[in-house]
Amino acid sequence: MEAIRVEDLTKHFEGIVAVNQIRFEVKQGELFGLLGPNGAGKTTTINLLATLLKPTSGRAWVAGYDILTERNQVRRSIGIVFQDPALDVKLTGRENLEFHAMMYGYSKAERQIKIKEVLKLVDLEDKADLLVEKYSGGMKRRLEIARGLIHEPKVLFLDEPTLGLDAQTRRKIWEYIKKLNQEKKVTIILTTHYLEEADYLCQKVAIMDRGVIIAMDEPQKLKDMLGGDILSFELENNYYSGRWQEKLKNLPWVKSFSWENNSFSLTTELGERRIPEIMEMARQEGLAIKSVHLHKPSLEDVYLYFTGRKIRDEDGILETRNQRAKRLSWRR
Amino acid sequence: MISWTAVYVLWLREIKRFSRARSRVLGSLAMPIFFMVSLGLGLNQVALPGLERNIGYLSFLVPGIIGMSLLFSSAFAGLSVLWDKEFGFLKEIMVAPVNRLSIVIGRVTGGTSIVIFQAIIILLFSFFLGFKFPGLFFLGLAFIFMILISLTFLGLGLIFASLMKDMQGFSLVMNFVIFPLFLLSGALYPIRNLPTSIRFLAYFDPLTYGVDGLRWSLLQMSSFPWILDLSFMVLFSLIMLGLGAFLFERQEST
Ligand SMILES: Nc1ncnc2c1ncn2[C@@H]1O[C@H](COP(=O)(O)OP(=O)(O)OP(=O)(O)O)[C@@H](O)[C@H]1O
Ligand SMILES: [Mg+2]
């Protein structure tokens, strides 16, 4: 049985199609990433799965329970860290955690142990008895993460968990998420705008845009789709030789090739191993190479490739026709 | 199945929040007490048509002011779900593995506790102004009416809070629903003084029966038989709470 199964899930808000007939599965124990630009429908998807919203059409099962007909069982199986603040600011940090632990049926002794543990994790031990309205933004975020981790659910939703946190805290949270996933076998669905976070944590990612899933696979496989590493060579002088260009282009391991006045670049797998070979060829040709740059495709490249925009842009840069054609062809 | 832990947690939350909000405590007491002092003492000598001779206006007013305090505070407590929506805390409550009825019961018991606490203070203050102690039996009956009034309007607040998306509607409800309910109820003057058409409206106002029941309990004077007041209040509170719980359960909460 899958931890999550989604079949043609759709959600309309007055005229907007926020989520449009998406389908996916998340295996038990998987750490699954949901990426996509603002307004892609990530939060809506999570809210649907967490029973906070009712789908317009389609079905889904979380931990084997139907999100429409077995809402209480779904709720019992999940934990969630919301994208937007969801704390009672008139209570102290500890009280927020206490109330949560009580709602999830922990005894007093268990509560004390758990709360101590999560407070330590997010480094809020000395602020625990302060009213939450006196917390800074990052402290509130940390408290919410702590709360989401108190009860160890079968399925944990993290909607941009590390947004606005400093690098150090973020690292710590990453390690905890990983540990939770590996040791406690918690299935985790994570949305994030930090692609390095998704790359580091997720075993599988789905890229969402305008309510639909446009690509879904293991991060490495997605990167491989881009055709490998990009090797760029910068030359000392302008140089032009059609024959030599042909020679490079026809090497069996070169996937694509481009030339400008004083530089050329090519795509290949295992780029680092090809550098000596190219250098040797250039020496024979009498070319002086000034610098070499090896670029391994990152999840960021994959993301750009599929969405045609940088992740931070509100509305997206206008796509070039080329990018759009590529993206659409990937959509199939 | 009702989760009593969840009920307790939500009750405790209301109490903690209330005890920390000093201005809310003071504000909710100041208004009724000002009313009682200014109107009650100021108009005490005035012979109001429809009032029996031996009952001064202050005595007549005390049950009305208690009803008013119960009405406003209960509606406020019910509508405070809107605050939770605004601050996002409702989501945290709504994903918890407890059924919606437990959540509603927790909120309602929390709200009622606070509201009754306020009513007791107002009643104690009225004794200080010269209101006569009605005796233990009638005091008990008065408490029953207080609780029923509180449940009815908590339910009403919950109904509106479930129908609205944000706090925009709060003052609308307060001005166009709660305030008219107060004025129509006979809290300030006997409803038999009202023109027939308006009096007809008053018969649909739950607070009319609530205040009348309180007046019977505290003064042994009333427009309707107390048993009728009691039956109506039980009916109203059941309907309002039922509808409130139903709409609360049905709402989407993001
Ligand atoms: N309660 C709502 N009412 C109306 N429209 C909504 C509501 N919630 C979301 N939307 C719309 O649905 C679309 C998807 O929103 P959603 O919050 O799921 O995006 P997201 O992928 O989480 O974006 P972000 O990265 O900014 O968090 C948006 O166009 C948004 O305006
Ligand atoms: Mg979102």
Tell me what the structure shows.
The complex is a heterodimer of chains A (332) and B (254). Chain A has two domains: 2-219, Rossmann fold (3-Layer(aba) Sandwich), CATH 3.40.50; 226-327, Alpha-Beta Plaits (2-Layer Sandwich), CATH 3.30.70.100. Helices cover 39% and strands 26% of the residues of chain A. Chain A is built from twelve helices and 14 strands. Chain A has helices spanning 42-49, 71-77, 93-103, 108-121, 137-150, 167-183, 195-201, 219-225, 242-249, 271-285, 299-307, 321-331, and strands at 4-13, 16-26, 31-35, 57-62, 65-66, 78-81, 155-159, 187-191, 204-209, 212-217, 229-235, 256-260, 263-268, 289-295. In chain A, β4 (57-62) and β5 form a beta hairpin. The two termini of chain A are 28 Å apart. Chain B has one domain. Helices cover 76% and strands 0% of the residues of chain B. Chain B has helices spanning 4-20, 22-42, 57-79, 81-86, 89-94, 100-129, 136-163, 169-184, 196-202, 206-219, 226-250. In chain B, α2 runs antiparallel to α3 and α10 (206-219) packs across α11. Chain A binds chain B through residues 47, 50-54, 72, 75-76, 78, 80, 82, 84-91, 95, 99-100, 102-105, 131, 147, and chain B through 5-6, 8-9, 12-13, 16-17, 20-21, 87-92, 94-99, 252-254. Adenosine-5'-triphosphate binds at residues 13, 16, 18, 36, 38-44, 83 of chain A.
